[in-house]
Structure formats: structure tokens, C-alpha cells
Amino acid sequence: MVIFRENTEGEYAPVGGRLYAGTPHETVVQTNMFTRRGTERIIRAAFEYCDRRNKKSGKKVTSVTKSNAQSFGMVFWDEVFTEVAAGFPHIETESLLVDRA
Length: 101
Fold this sequence. Notes:
This protein is 31% helix and 20% strand. It has helices at residues 36-53, 73-85, and strands at residues 16-19, 27-30, 60-65, 92-97.
């Protein structure tokens, strides 16, 4: 098993900040950010690696997201995964929620 993990976008994007710091109303906002380019890049890398590494049988790429709770970024990720997978019809795919993976 090889794991490809996106850590340049999503939760790792430095988008957000603090409001009312040091007060009882202190609020922290952390925004996930996904680009098509970045999302497709990491997903395609996983498929290409699988294609090169594995023999003719047993090729499989699994995507694990939290799309049941993060209804924009993770749903977008799932959509791009499906699009990229279409270019690799000989590779089996699986999509899981992180809570059930």
C-alpha cells in the first residue's frame, strides 16, 4: 500500500485567522481551499504511480475523504477523483469516508 496525501492545499492552505483575540468572543476561522489544478495533480499522481508500479491485475486506487461533512471541498475532490479515474479504466477505484476507512 502506498499513500498519496495532499498537504499543500485543503486544510493546509493558510486561509483564515482570529477575530477578537484575547476576549470572551474570540473566534478562529480556518478555511479549506482546493484548486482544480492541485486536486487533479495529486489524484493523477496516484493513478500514474499505480499504473507504473502494479502488474496487470490488482490495480486499485482508493480515495478517502470527509465529503459527508465537508460538502464543498471534499465533494469537489470526489468529483475530480471520478473524472481522473475515467482516464484509467483498467484501474479499480474505491471511494471511502474517512470515518469508515
